[in-house]
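Troubleshooting log. The previous structure file for this entry was overwritten by mistake, so regenerating from the original sequence record. Sequence copied from the archived sheet and checked twice against the printout by T.R.
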Amino acid sequence: MTTNGGLEPVFCTIVPPHLLDKLARDSDPALSGPARRSLERDAFERTRRRLTTVIGAQAATAATTAAADGDQPDRTIFDAQHTQNLPGKKVREEGSEPGADATVNRAYAGLGATFELYLKVYGRRSIDGEGLPLQATVHFDKDYDNAFWNGEQMVFGDGDGEIFLDFTIPVDVIGHELTHGVTQYTANLAYFGQSGALNESLSDVFGSLIKQYTLRQTAADADWLIGAGLLAPRVQGQALRSMKAPGTAYDDDVLGKDPQPADMEHYVHTGRDNGGVHINSGIPNHAFYIAATAIGGYAWEKTGQIWYDVLTGGHLKEDAQFADFATLTVKAARERFGAGAELQAVEKAWEEVGVQTL
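Regenerated output below.
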């Protein structure tokens, strides 16, 4: 992957830095040790991503650039074998049968589920729209408490077993991280402040839709949780984030309380986490939930289509603010569905979270 065409791939993790910071300060070394190592690894990967962006990536090999026929995924799963070497040992490729390693099988299935939603619902051939092969590495490092998209591939840690479990368990985590790739190839939203929160929110939106599509859930039936099944039994919480009720995903003596706001009245001003990209994403997340449940049915069909139209329409600027995005969703709803219930639901959703459309 190079930076041709102005693309600026960023290093995006599913677990927000503020959670790992909290864990890293815990008095129990079984909790603080893995968190500190994960933060150090994230910092290294973030720096390496930034350097690659500046100097350009190495020329891709034929194996990594040869796209599939466009209508079928081209997946390769690697095993880092608890090292930090990427991509690691190849353990499964497209069309091969499941093996004994459940983590490998979940990663393979999650890549496929993401590919399927984008192709069958939105007509998009892989995350770049041109059949890009999908690669993922599992068993990264030891007790690594995160999963990330590094601009080129997916990487999954096994978790520490105390706070976080295997990061391939929730399919929406896989969909979330791969959607960072979709954003990278489309709107290329800057990863800071409100544009960064939109970047994170779009990954939550489509990660949730991938889970709902896989389970064939309607908007009314979905749990609207991001990362359900990721937290270990000792944690008082359901998931990393809640789109239905931001700020309620967890309330734990170790992790603290979920800090996400549901509306602009409670917008968090911070210099940490790139201006709170994982925190303030709760506001556009909640707007999507409100619109999707008001419209009803399968959320990927109408509300998801509106959000996808904005993401890929070419009018969303890299430094877009919430109001810019909201305005474009209203325009997209009107263009696709007319002045009916869909438009009214989108307008009301943004009004409820306190974002004014221009």
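The two ends are 36 Å apart (CA to CA). Archived copy saved in two places this time.
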